[in-house]
Specification:
The protein has eight helices and six strands; from the N terminus they run H-E-H-E-H-H-E-H-E-H-H-E-H-E. It has 162 residues and is of the alpha+beta class. The strands form two sheets. It has a four-stranded mixed beta sheet. Strands 1-2 form a two-stranded antiparallel sheet. The two termini are 31 Å apart.
Length: 162
Amino acid sequence: MLSHPLCTLSHTHWTYWPTHWTHYLTLTGHAFPPTVHSGPLTCLALIRTVAAWLSLTDRVQVMNSDIVCQPELVSSADVVVLNNVFQFFLELDKQADMWRFLRSTVKPGAILVTIPALHQVLVLDQAGIDLSQWVEEIPLHNVHAVTIDKEDLEEVKHYRVK
C-alpha cells in the first residue's frame, strides 16, 4: 500500500468531483464519460478512469505502491511526473533519501515533469544533488494549448535527465 497520503486518504484536496472535470474538459473540447458522474473520485480512481476513457490502459500504468519498492518501474519510465512530492509528508532526511533514490534510478533521457521547479526544492542541496549535473530544463512550447490557466502552467517544469 502506498504510504503517500495524497492518493490514499480521502482528503478534500485530492477527492475530485466529476463536475469539475466536466467543466474543464468541456472548455478543452472534450466530454467527460457520463458513467463517472455519480460521486467523488479519489486521485487514483480519476487517473484510472481517464486512462481507460482515453484508451490508454495499454500505455499507462497506474501504480499504488511505495516508489522505493518499484526501482525497475522507475528505471524503465520514459516520463516521471512529480507533483509536489515529498515535501508535505516526509521529514527532511527522508526527502533527501527519496531524491537520492530518484537521482540514482531515473534513466538518462527520461523526462521529469515537476511542480514546483527543481531549483525550488531546497532539500536537493541536502541530498547532495547538483541539478546542473543531473538534468537540463526543457522549455515548453505553446503552453496555452495545455491549459487556460497560464499562472498554474508556469509552475510546471520539464527536465531531461542527463
